[in-house]
Amino acid sequence: MTATASAAPEARHYVLEPLRPALIGVTIGHLLLAAIVLWLASDSSAPTQAPPDSSSKTASPALLWFRPADFQSPLPLNASVPTAATTPPPATRNASRYITLSRVTSASTSTLSPPATSSQPSPLTSAAPSAATMSELDQIDEALYEAFMQVWTPPDLEQTAPSKRTTRLDISLNADLALVQADLVAPSGSTELDLSVLLAVEKVAERLRSRLVKPDSLKIPNSLPSSFQNSRYVCRIQFQIE
């Protein structure tokens, strides 16, 4: 029996099969899809930036620096310091003005001369004025009242103490109804109020003098009634504010 030599094992060679085109296409597609997803995710997470403004190109203002010692002394003059709101001064209140005019008497000009004898009675002792005469006197009183109300400007109440808001004035008119005398018979004690009354007297006196030359709104007769031609017409006027 002869031994037969065993045959040597045959070597095997494994060869990879070539990739199919379909598999290559699917792989490339997955890679592209993954790249697109990553790009979208990075774009959405990026912060939004505003478009550059043309004004940003201008130079920024210089910063103001302070040292620790500056806080113990007043700020520099070029530093902006917020100012506290100032309280506005209280508004002045205009005074309510009142004028009261009363007829004192008709003073005879003969009192400037020697006294009259009993045979020559004074106009003060003459008979009572007629209704027409009284109507003319009332017209004079109304014209004087209107004239003073138009020109009198009293001071503000804040300038006058409550106890100094009344003054009385006596004025005398001659036969031609010109203002010939004015006396503060009861000064108020307030310089501002008394001066405002005296200023009003000057304005009324000027209007009475010029009314015969140029038209005026005063409805006042040209002269006293005939029974008072030798007299002075005296009125007492009280000025009051409150």
What do these coordinates show?
The chain has a domain at 97-113 and 130-241: Fusion Protein Consisting Of Minor Coat Protein, Glycine Rich Linker, Tola, And A His Tag, Chain: A, Domain 2. The protein has 242 residues and is of the alpha+beta class. The chain contains three helices and four strands; from the N terminus they run H-E-H-E-E-H-E. Mean pLDDT is 75; it is low at 109-126. Helices cover 27% and strands 16% of the residues. Helix 2 packs across helix 3 (191-210). It has a four-stranded antiparallel sheet, covered by helices on one side. A hairpin with a 5-residue loop joins strand 2 (166-173) and strand 3.
Rg over CA atoms: 56 Å
Based on the coordinates given, report the CATH architecture of the domain at 97-113 and 130-241: 2-Layer Sandwich
Shape assignment: rod-shaped
Tell me about the largest β-sheet: 4 strands, antiparallel
CATH topology of the domain at 97-113 and 130-241: Fusion Protein Consisting Of Minor Coat Protein, Glycine Rich Linker, Tola, And A His Tag, Chain: A, Domain 2
Q: What is the H-and-E element order?
A: HEHEEHE
Residue runs with pLDDT of under 50 for 5 or more positions = 109-126
Mean pLDDT: 75
Look at the structure and give the CATH class of the domain at 97-113 and 130-241: Alpha Beta
Number of DSSP strand runs? 4
Q: Report the structural category.
A: alpha+beta
- The number of helical elements comes to 3
Cα(first) to Cα(last) distance is: 162 Å
Biggest sheet: strand arrangement? 1-4-2-3
The residue fraction in helices comes out at 25-40%
Give the amount of beta strand, in percent: 15-25%
